[in-house]
Amino acid sequence: MKKLFLLVLALTTLMLFFGCGSKPKPVEETKPVITEPTPPKEEPKPEPKPEPVIKKITESDFKAVYFDFDKYNLVDSAKAALDFNAQVLKDNPSVIVRIEGNCDERGTVEYNISLGEKRANSAKQFLMGLGIPESQMQTISFGKEKPVALGHDEASWAKNRRDDFKIISQ
């Protein structure tokens, strides 16, 4: 009987030891939270500015200045043409022009050279009054040597009484 008692006691102890215990909860491993560094925000790149368009001007960008017969004073149409030419020169300060005074075929060579010079200087003085530096202009007189119209009538002569603008450098 004592053996039976010891056997029951041993079984009970074993059952208590192994059977009654609750299973330990598995420890959940917590994974470390890895935060990726956020990339820096890229600022929107500014649009590249277009390169300034450098327009090479030509002599056709200037207007001829016309005069009345035997005159070198500036009429309203001549002043308007010079206002236009002044703006071209202001927009292109590196341009140097030569103002060429011309006359019609009437008059002596000496007279026409003198009148052409007065016409070129009249235009130059007007432009200087508009703020064009004197260093940007030269003058010359061709008298009646460079006609644009070869006729011998008033319409042809009117076209030849003029100042032309020629580009010396830019």
Characterise this structure.
With 170 residues, the protein is of the alpha+beta class. The protein is 36% helix and 14% strand. The chain has a four-stranded mixed beta sheet with strand order 1-4-2-3. The N and C termini lie far apart (132 Å).
Report the β-strand fraction as a percent range. 5-15%
Whole-number mean pLDDT: 88
| Order of adjacent strands in the largest pleated sheet | 1-4-2-3
Any idea what the shape is? rod-shaped
Quickly give the structural class.
alpha+beta
Major sheet: size, sense and barrel closure? Answer: 4 strands, mixed
* Pattern of helices and strands: HEHEHEHE
Q: How many helix segments?
A: 4
Question: What is Rg?
Answer: 50 Å
Number of strands: 4
Query: Which stretches are low in confidence, meaning pLDDT under 50 for 5 or more residues running?
Result: none
User: Termini, distance in Å?
Assistant: 132 Å
Helix content, binned percent:
25-40%
SSE diagram, text form:
Elements: H1 2-19, E1 65-66, H2 76-91, E2 96-102, H3 109-129, E3 137-143, H4 154-160, E4 162-169
Parallel strand pairs: 2-3
Antiparallel strand pairs: 1-4, 2-4
